[in-house]
Design brief:
By secondary structure, this protein is mainly β. It has one domain (7-422): Porin. 13% of the residues lie in helices and 52% in strands.
Amino acid sequence: MGLEIFGSCDLIAVSGDYSENHDSKNLTHMTSKLLKVMSVGLAASASTAFAGDFSADSVPSLLGGGSGGAGDWCKGLKSIGTVYKNKSNPWIQEVKFFGRAHYQYGYSDGNVDRADFSGDGVELRRLRFGASVKFLNGFKVAGRANLERGGFNNNSIGYSGWDELYLEKSFGDVLGFDDVTVGYGRFKLGFGGEESVSSKKIKTIERSLLNNTFAGDRVTGGRIELSRGDVDFLIGIYNTDGNDETFGQWDGGTIYQLGVAFEALGGDFLVQGIYRDSNSAEADETVAYDWAGSVTYETELGPIDLFLNTTYGSDEDGDIYGVVVMPSMYLIEKKLEAVVRYQWAHSTGDRLRIQSRNARNVYRADGLGDIRGDDHHSIYAGLNYYLCGHNLKLMTGVEYENLTGPNGDTEATTLWGAARFYF
């Protein structure tokens, strides 16, 4: 358990037990295994989702070793990305590759201001591949590219821009602070409790509308990560230019971010703030508010993991705020998990819309237009089956949404199914 304060932390793969003297021979071997794992993971996801007859025991032989059983191929899947590691090398200490493939299906049924709609769709939700290199005993460069180009009912593949791309330097302990790291580049903003958890590890197929309203886009700038005792801090300064390809420009405005993570009241707190100082309306492409604050609390109540979040934001057009309550528990330890999420969001000035995935895409395909409202309720219930932890899992769920406002109401029920893989 634990809240992730830094949105870029999902770049770090789990390392295996490698010798520090693995050089060119090991790199060739690991690269071969890397390609095998990508193929096996995608095949396993598809086989399990659509055939329901996949056996974990059949995978180890494809990875070139192991005595059988899920533990062998899971261990390989978690460690395969590290293709080189040698702390005694003064030039390059580590090379990692990482990637993820998320595919999902949704069927939505509902009405927009009494006009009925229904339909389904598939989506290659995420396809990303990247690498990181640690060098010169403290530097790290990392980048991850988006490779999905299609969207709803369009599974086109191709480079569509950088997800993250940055350089950082670890300084160790400085002025009483521990693990001081300074970075610059293109980052995930990571604002909000749900958004601070990598998409690899979220427990619902889609995050809540409240989260998506405040999540923001990728941002360009600098950030400092540090800790003091048991308290972790993040300080970020970014520009407001939402460049989809690489880095934004500094001629529009500035975004300031502060995050603090600590333990209290038997759980983990994450307190975050965002402030936007903009001098150009055209440049406000990364966050849709002037300021916002978010408080997240996560704890364990017996077998139940409980996630609570409240977020409040404001700009010249009014306020948006709400709460998320999400309990989850294992029905079969480390294999089958049940999760329920309730969310309420409210705005002044009728600024809310129904979730774009999957319901909004469906009613737009039926020729219906958006109805904006000021009050949104949703409840999600789902099951997650972990073949290899979050590295390879299947997700199902059902979500009901209701949006009300003076111009009409929208309601929708969506049935979800997803296969998710990463290494």
